[in-house]
Amino acid sequence: MCSIIDWIICIIAKVRNTDVLMTGTSSAHEPIIDPAEKGEAMIDLAEQEPVPSAEENSDVNVTTVNDDTQSQCSSLKDITMPPVIRKRGRPKGNEVTVIGLPKKTKLSLTTGHGSRLKPFIKLHTSVKEMVMLKWFVEKHIAKRAIKQQVMIEEDQVEVMPEKVSDAVLDDNVDVHLIRKYFTADAWLLLENVLDRKKINAVYTCGSCCHDISESDGSPSLICKHCLQWYHMKCVGISKLPKRKYWFCRGCHASPATE
User: Fold this and answer.
1) Is the four-CA dihedral 203, 207, 213, 219 of positive or negative sign?
2) CA pair distance 72, 79, nearest whole angstrom
3) pLDDT in tens, 50-99
4) CA-to-CA distance for 229 and 215, rounded, in angstroms?
5) Intra-chain end-to-end CA distance of the chain, in Å
6) CB 153 within 8 A of CB 141
7) Nearest to 128 by CA among 119, 115, 137
8) How many CA atoms lie within 13 A of 183 on its CB side?
9) What's the rounded Cα separation, in Å, for the pair 245 and 121?
10) What is the maximum alpha-carbon separation in the chain?
11) Which residues of 131-145 are buried (b: 16+ CB within 10 A; e: fewer)?
């Protein structure tokens, strides 16, 4: 009996030792997996992972674009622009010839006083009145009549028609605008002088002072500011200007502004 019991105990002990050895070996070494089984397992995991939709992809792209735009805007704000340089205009001497005379083809409609030349018909009424008064009386008398409301007397009126400007014969001139500055006798004298001027109407060139109708066939043109006629050859023009209004050099130098 003792030998049988001892034999059973030995067998049980051996079985226990075998389980312990097998357990230690499995924990110390990883199990070997077949490559085919490993690929199938990865495919199963890929099928289980959620795939992002097209809307989610577009949201990601929009977010990326917005981030790029903001970064570009911030970088543009950091750029320092150069200071604005004020224009200095044309260099001095560019409007004159080698000997210092003004260039004929470079005349501007802007005067040296900073104002723009206008034709006589577009001048202010007060400016027209001053211009017309200076045709018949002295400049200081005309200023006093307009500014101080002093009436012009008969002895202050020019009585020689040839000394009155030819501009008074222009159709755009209305001398009745200056009637209020003359006494009754002075106005009658002015009308008499004007009638004689119209009877012997002669238009002289503002440059050579010769009658434009008695020239050698040279064409002429009128300054729309002072209403004075000029021979084209006297002002150095070979053909009529294409612009609507032409102004003489005298008006460019001293336009009627008062």
Assistant:
1) negative
2) 11
3) 555 555 555 545 455 566 666 666 666 777 777 777 766 655 555 666 66
4) 13
5) 155
6) no
7) 119
8) 10
9) 11
10) 179
11) bbbbbbbeeebbebb
Going by pLDDT thresholds of 50, 70 and 90, the confidence category of residue 15 is low
Distance, in Å, from the CA atom of 189 to the CA atom of 164, rounded to the nearest integer, reads 13
Cross-strand bridge partners of residue 220: 231
Pairwise CA distance, residues 130 & 140, whole Å: 10
Written as one letter, the residue type at 10 is C
* In contact, 106 and 96? CB cutoff 8 Å: no
Chain position carrying tokens 């002669």: 202
Non-local (6+) Cβ contacts of 95 within 8 A are 102, 103, 106
Angle at 60 between CA 57 and CA 61, to 5 degrees: 90
Lowest mean per-residue pLDDT among 117-126, 134-143, 213-222: 213-222
Question: Which residue in this structure is represented by tokens 């289980």?
Answer: 48
